[in-house]
Task: structure prediction
Amino acid sequence: MMAPTESASDADAAPNDHGMSPVVYRNIAALMEVRRIEEKHKSASERLADAITRFAGGMWCVYAHALLFGGWIVVNTGKVPGIRPFDPFPFVMLAMFASVEAIFLSTFILISQNRMSKMADRRAELDLQISLLTEHELTRVVQIVDALAIRIGAARPPQEEMADIVKDVNPSRVVEQIERAEAELNARSM
Result:
């Protein structure tokens, strides 16, 4: 039997796990859908940049470079019989190759980081919106519970404390206060 707050789709989507609410499974599925849509809308250049960044950030890249550069140095020091050195010490061509590769790798990595930063910003904004909504809803719940406490004559916190608790938070005032505190801290550290 389904709980009254549980929808049929929540119950169908959730595995039979009594340790977690079906809402958790629904939220996970929603997040995976957002990721799938983001992945689907990536341009070809973003896909290429991500693939290169994934490779460059892995041990296979280290192994490939160690093999390539090590082989280049061994060949060009004349240690391999039958192969004439084509880039003798100080390995100018190798240095140029490594420099050009570094330029391209850093560009691909920056492209991927910029995209990931935009995604992180969107997620942070979503978190902020959810937090503000939750704070607002909890303020309303506190007001209702306080009204019930008054009605039945139950003990309540002191009036000054209740006045602070039932106030909605003004996000722009919070940001102003944080900026003011940071400015004071920076001024003291100089």
